[in-house]
Amino acid sequence: MHITFYSKNNCSLCEKGLHVIEKLKEEYFLTVNVVDIYEDDELLEKYMLRIPVVLVEGIEADEGILSYDKISQIIKNTN
User: Fold this and answer.
1) Is 50 strand, coil or helix?
2) Domain membership of residue 44 as a residue range
3) Predicted TM-score (pTM) of this structure
4) 65: domain CATH number?
5) How many domains would you assign to the chain?
């Protein structure tokens, strides 16, 4: 299962969100692609005020203060 994690440098909320993703990796077989939104103008415009944003298989799963339970449920539903 593929997870895309949109974030930026020096973002404490992103760091906390990455811990949630690491916990999910312990339970599920996940590949995680961390993307810095400042490397792409379109991503910056789209996610600037929403990061971190998590996509599960291309589906927006959660944003901001990430919920382990919410993302886990989406992972289960996409299997």
Assistant:
1) coil
2) 2-78
3) 0.94
4) 3.40.30.10
5) 1
Sign of the C-alpha dihedral, residues 47, 12, 68, 38?
Answer: positive
Q: Kindly report, residue by residue over 68-78, the tens digit of the pLDDT.
A: 999 999 999 98
**CB neighbour class for 22 (10 Å; exposed up to 12, middle 13-18, buried from 19):** exposed
Contacts of 56 (CB under 8 A, 6+ apart): 1, 2, 3, 71, 74, 75, 78
Alpha helices (H) in the chain, listed in sequence order: 12-27, 41-47, 68-78
Residue 7 has what pLDDT? 97
Q: Which of 59, 52, 66, 56 is nearest to 1 (CA)?
A: 56
Q: What is the pLDDT of residues 18-59, one digit of tens each?
A: 999 999 999 999 999 999 999 999 999 999 999 999 999 999
